[in-house]
Design a protein that fits this description.
This protein is mainly β. The protein has one domain: Sandwich (Jelly Rolls). Strands 1, 2, 3, 4, 5, 6, 7 and 8 form an eight-stranded antiparallel β-sheet that branches. It is globular and about 35 Å long. It starts with 16 loop residues before the first strand and ends in a 7-residue tail after the last strand. 23% of the residues are buried.
């Protein structure tokens, strides 16, 4: 059953899905224009460098990440955020176990 455009989502009701070695994600709320996703990383997990046509803005909920966007790397911790322009190559290396909250526009059809 699709949750697309549902106004509310309860975290406890949503499943974690595999998203790579040591990484799981949970699709939260979304419609055609925007999507919010929580991504949990185990220590040392690597978000492989990739690109997509979506704008992505992300908040570090917890943990420490080395985030690389278009060849520039910054170490970010809880409360820090980053913006990924469309088609920019980006990735993250988890330094301490943590969670990212990602927002994409438009929504990621490949996630549902």
């Amino acid at each position: 059953m699709s949750r697309k455009a549902e106004p509310f989502a309860r975290d406890a009701d949503l499943p974690w899905e595999p998203a790579g070695a040591g990484i799981v994600r949970k699709v939260l709320t979304y419609d055609d224009g925007v999507m919010m996703v929580r991504v949990r990383f185990e220590a040392g997990a690597i978000g492989t460098p990739h690109s997509h046509p979506h704008v992505q803005c992300s908040l570090v909920e917890s943990g420490v990440f080395d985030v690389t966007i278009s060849g520039k790397t910054e170490r970010l911790g809880a409360g820090d955020s980053f913006l990924v322009p469309p088609d920019a190559v980006h990735g993250a290396v988890n330094v301490e176990p943590g969670v990212l909250l990602d927002v994409f526009t438009p929504m990621r059809n490949d996630f549902v």
